[in-house]
Specification:
Blueprint (H helix, E strand, L loop, with lengths): L2 H7 L3 E6 L4 H5 L15 H10 L1 E5 L1 H7 L19 H12 L4 E9 L5 E9 L9 E8 L1 H28 L1 H26 L6 H29 L6 E4 L1 H18 L3 E6 L6 E4 H18 L9 E9 L3 E8 L6 H4 L17 H11 L3 E6 L5 E8 L11
Parallel strand pairs: 7-9
Antiparallel strand pairs: 1-2, 1-5, 3-4, 4-5, 6-8, 9-10, 10-12, 11-12
């Protein structure tokens, strides 16, 4: 069986690309011939290479991916690639023609019908030969896998949003009370300020002090509203280098009324000068609020004689930051401990069972971990570990 017959029988698409027109373009590019596998191409070079790479031959599987018949050969590769994949193809082509034997990458194909098809591509040249005038491109349809991953990510995103809304529902009364306090302070201070101004000799120093208190109370109310809007917003995640202590203090602001209503003593043991961690602020805030709220509720049934909620932060080994949320409640029954993070499993009569599951998903998405240590009648401690650096998320310092 010849090489051509083997390629023709392959279940994956294989294209032979004529590079005779593309070769002079590559030779003229800066850094060509240097020991480098990557190169940032100008847009005009991307367009030139995508249009100069001509489909010389292809097998039946390749035609099924693009919808082009055999007589449609001699088309440029640009004709079957989505415009968004032209740059990636051109950069890979530059690498292969500059010495790399083979490069794998993802592309989006444009079917003749207009349908977009996600494919895993491999571009290679024949071994042992620097230049033969042709390169080969294999294409494997991965549309179902990509669609499944997108659907899974969307589902997780929607579940996270549902969990945030569930938290918001539980805290509605608490937030109303929390906002009412600074607003009442604003009114009280404003009335006092008017009285000082209406005196025969207005005390401007006292009025200045009152106005400063009004500004602080107004800012506090605005901060509470902003925080709750952020938690409710169903937006895309964005990771920024943030201080975990600031997230904890924001969570405490949200939960202050809930903690006070449950007669829970709060102890913060926050290590100073911790390095920042690349996190999505809203998601990690959701984790802290959820864990703290669960801890406060665990001590609200009367079984805890000393209702103390401890939140700690510290530098952990292996370049991680640790966040601990510990309560003095009845602890977690060993029989349910293993299922506590399962979706839709709950020990609360009115619970939905997605809070801790979402917490784990969020933490693991940040390449961290969450664990529970508990014993009957000795409370429970959740420990969240988050890496200081995130090599998989290279957004700027977002």
């Amino acid at each position: 069986m010849t090489d051509k017959s083997i390629i023709a029988a392959m279940p994956i698409g294989v294209l032979q690309l004529d590079m005779r027109n593309a070769w002079p373009i590559v030779e003229a590019l800066p850094d060509f011939g240097k020991a480098s596998s990557t190169h940032i191409l100008e847009q005009h070079s991307v367009c030139a290479l995508a249009n100069a790479s001509i489909i010389q031959s292809s097998n039946a599987a390749a035609f099924s991916l693009t919808g082009h018949e055999p007589h449609d050969q001699a088309l440029p590769i640009a004709a079957i690639l989505h415009a968004g994949s032209h740059r990636r193809f051109a950069e890979v082509l530059w690498s292969v023609m500059n010495g790399c034997s083979e490069v794998s990458f993802d592309v989006v194909l444009l079917h003749k019908s207009g349908e977009e098809i996600h494919a895993l591509a491999n571009l290679w040249r024949l071994p042992g030969l620097r230049w033969t005038g042709s390169v080969y491109l294999s294409l494997t349809n991965i549309t179902r896998r990509v669609t499944s991953e997108v659907s899974k990510e969307h589902l997780q995103h929607e579940l996270a949003h549902a969990a945030r809304m569930s938290l918001l529902g539980e805290m509605t009364a608490s937030i109303a009370h929390e906002i009412n306090q600074p607003l009442s302070s604003v009114v009280t201070n404003a009335e006092a300020g008017l009285r000082w101004l209406q005196r025969d000799v207005p005390d401007l120093m006292e009025v200045t002090s009152i106005l400063e208190r009004i500004v602080k109370s107004g800012n506090r109310a605005a901060d509470i509203i902003t925080t709750m809007k952020t938690m409710a917003r169903n937006g895309k995640t964005r990771r920024l280098p943030l201080q975990i202590n600031d997230i904890v203090e924001e969570a405490v602001l949200i939960l202050r009324s809930e903690i006070s209503r449950g007669q829970v003593a709060l102890r913060l043991e926050l290590t100073a000068d911790l390095p920042t961690v690349p996190i999505d602020r809203t998601q990690i805030l959701q984790v802290v609020v959820n864990l703290a709220l669960n801890a406060a509720q665990a001590m609200a049934d009367g079984q805890a004689w000393n209702r103390t909620l401890k939140i700690r932060t510290r530098r952990d080994e292996d370049n991680f930051i640790a966040l601990e949320v510990e309560d003095s409640g009845p602890g977690v029954d060993p029989a349910v401990k293993e299922r506590l993070f399962d979706s839709f499993y709950t020990t609360k009569d009115s619970g939905v069972g997605i809070g801790l599951s979402i917490c784990r998903s969020i933490v693991e998405a940040h390449r961290g971990s969450i664990e529970l240590i508990s014993a009957p009648n000795l409370g429970a401690r959740f420990t969240v570990r988050l890496p200081v650096t995130d090599s998989e998320n290279t957004e700027p310092n977002l």
